[in-house]
What does this fold into?
Amino acid sequence: MNLIWQGIQNALLLLSGGDPEVWQITLLSLKVSGLATAISLLIGLPLGTGFALGKFPGRSFFLSLINTGMALPPVVVGLVVSVFLWRSGLLGSLHLIYTPAAIVIAQTIIAAPVVTGLTAAALQQLDPRLRLQLLGLGASRFQMILALWREARLPLLAALMAGFGSVISEVGASMMVGGNIRYQTRVLTTAIVLETGKGEFARAIALGVLLLFLTFLVNLALTWIQQRGAKR
It folds into this structure.
């Protein structure tokens, strides 16, 4: 218990003291995971909408693949991305391995199925008659989709939060494709693993507190938007 309390105190000291390395790690974590979540939203929102509203052969099969992808092990994603980005890999000429871009790619692969699956589930819960009513009132297909997104905005925001949560806390893929390089690809989760391996438990706990605090702030903002929309 004393170790945990010491870790919390260290976290406050690291923030108030302006430790440049800690701030760099924290900002990189937010930047990488935020970008991966944004890309996942750009992929998952239209893809999930297509699965929810479309009628095509193999739809159930592809939805099953998406739902399976929601439980993708990060280490497996890290392995696959590493194989492609390695110098002898298919995309090795891009020299992305052990860069923040590689972490973004891996985290996007992790978060995209989560956003896609939850988006499809959210839109499938809406009354099918709503689509017919919107089209009957003269709305174009694009206008209908916008209206459905607005109607399902609360679960869609939950999908966004789930996507962010799946990447800000993952460590396996970030470690494998980023290499945990100091001042370059070290994020909060990989830094926690490093400090724990060194036996620096107080510093590891301090970084863990920062990670939880960062995640809480992001989700607090998204929840505020969600609940504000619920009152309308």
Q: What stands out?
A: The chain is about 80% helix and 0% strand. The CA atoms of residues 169 and 189 lie 7 Å apart. The chain has one domain: 2-230. The longest helix spans residues 20-53.
